Amino acid sequence: MRFFPFLIQAVLAAVLSSLSLSLFSPFVTLRRISYMGEALSHIAFAGIAIALLWGLNLQLTTLVVVVAVSLAVSWLARRFKLGEGNSLTIFLSVSMALGIILVSLRKGYSFDLASYLFGNVLLISKAELWELGFLCLLNLAFIAGFYKELFYLSYNAEMAQFYRIPAIRVNRLFMILLALNIVINLRAAGIILVSAQLILPAAAAFNLVGRLDRAVICSALFAVVSALAGFALSWWLDLPTGASIVLLEFMLFLASLAGSRVLRTKT
Amino acid sequence: MIRISNLDYSANTLQILENINLEISDGEFTAIIGPNGAGKTTLIKLLLGFLPIQSGSIEIDGIPHLDWLKTNPIGYLPQHEEFDRRFPAKAIDIVLIGLAGSVPPGRRFSTAQREKARQALETTKTENLAGKNIGSLSGGELQRVFLARALVSESKYLILDEPEASLDQPGVQNFFALLKELNQAGKTIITISHDLNTLTEYCSFLVCLNRHLHCHTKTDLVNSEIIHKTFGEAVRIIEKGY
Q: Is residue B195 part of a domain?
């Protein structure tokens, strides 16, 4: 079989996209904030629509909108004691509604909504590939630099703060990076499927290992394997790539459940 | 020394603490008693900086408490600590939180710090639990691991919020005997408690609180009149020996 450059580019895009999300996945899972990934990716839709309507830089606009809304949600939740989950859900729906209205205003413009909703690694440009690679390095640097702080922040934020760990600052960085991960991965993973890739690799990893550092490695391995196998499957069976990757990650999750039962009976 | 002056605190128009004036000398084993809703935990949370002061002041060693807390560690054992029982942490990881604030981001704990954590576990007689996952520990074991965390920073102050809540009666006696040992070794201890019998046996100073301060005196000077003032007439006092 002859490998076309664009095919290699697409495989790399699938791997780097899954890998970047999987590195964050253990912290999102431990902190039980998977709803955050879901909400931020939907809020991003309003950013995409604003950028398209006024011809702005798509990623930068989306990032600004996602970070601004996530900070506004935290402020509103604190100021009016709304509860972060409720505030996020309100903004999720409003952002989608706003996005749909703005897109409908741009009459005569052909907008490939499906590629943003479900992602398409075949459409990833070289520049976007570099962005994904940079994102993986950034995530790795963040985890290596703040591993101890992230560990205790995930354990109990209030106690971490009490013991003079810079929990608030690290959490702010974490949220900004989470937003960046979602925005950069929208083209490859899609609004609907990006949150699945933020949960499944770590959920599977924690079924098999009992330490956070091992879970990060395991989660990354599952994501890379799922991306390669999912891409191959989608190529040969002519299936959507993002959905194939998510289904493979889910199968690995099911296998890890069985694996955890075996491990429990052995010990 | 801890000095609390003219301290008031209210939440949603409900007055929780009113005009609290209190001095706790170094080396005391102080117990704060009072009925539910008396403001005991609020007082501790104000002291530890979890809640902002609305009026009045708290000083630790002559320094405003928030300034003191920025540069000094303080041992604290909360009443309930929220965490996921499946969280992938071993007992020693939990003890090491007590030292994490002094290790800059990007740096790991040193061998000396790990050794310190092991020694703290040894002090609370839980060194055999160091490598166990926190989810597999019993309530009593967890309390001792949390106590080791409160001790590891070697603060001269140790603050506890109802440490007996998750212990059975022999466990309470053992726990307070351990606290007494720590107090005799020089720690200033402040604990909230409901177990009057245990307190009179181990503590040296009693603070009776029910929104107001009803007494702050040596434990052996506390009488039934003070207890009734603090808890109300509904409390029945059973003298020891019965």
A: yes
User: Quick check: B151 and B123 in contact, CB under 8 A?
Assistant: yes
ipTM score of complex: 0.84
Q: In angstroms, rounded to a whole number, what is the distance separating the alpha carbons of residues A8 and A28?
A: 30
What contacts B156, CB < 8 A, 6 or more positions away?
A: B26, B186, B187, B188
Concatenated DSSP letters for B45-101?
HHHHTSS--SEEEEEETTEEHHHHHHHS--EEE-S-----TT---BHHHHHHHHHHT
pLDDT digits (tens, 9 = 90+) for A18-63: 999 999 999 999 988 888 888 888 899 899 889 988 888 888 999 9
Kindly list the residues from chain A whose CB atom is less than 8 angstroms away from the CB atom of residue B52.
none
CB atoms within 10 A of CB A196: 22
Residues from chain B contacting residue A215 (CB–CB below 8 Å): 88
List the CATH number of the domain containing A208: 1.10.3470.10
Same domain, B94 and B195: no
User: Could you tell me if A159 lies within 8 Å of chain B, comparing CB atoms?
Assistant: yes
Which secondary-structure segment (H or E) carries A57?
none
pLDDT, mean over chain B = 87
Q: Which residue has the higher pLDDT, A229 or B220?
A: A229
pLDDT at B233 over 60: no
C-alpha to C-alpha distance for A174 and A35, rounded to whole angstroms: 15
Q: Give percent above pLDDT 90 in chain A.
A: 51
- Chain B residue numbers with beta carbons less than 8 Å from the beta carbon of A149 are 100, 105
Q: Per the domain annotation, does B131 fall within a domain? A: yes
| Number of residues written out for chain B | 242
Whether residue B234 is predicted with pLDDT greater than 60 in this model: the reply is no
Nearest by Cα to A188 from A134, A84, A116: A116
- Which chain B residue has the Cα nearest residue A141? B106
Residue B79 lies in a domain: no
Q: Are residues B121 and B171 in the same domain?
A: no
pLDDT in tens, B184-223: 999 999 999 877 777 778 888 888 888 888 766 666 656 6
The number of residues making up chain A comes to 267
Token pair in block for residue A77: 């939740």
Same domain as B63, residue B105: no
Kind and range of the H or E run holding A83: none
**Average pLDDT across chain A, whole number:** 88
User: Is residue A206 within 8 angstroms of chain B, CB to CB?
Assistant: yes
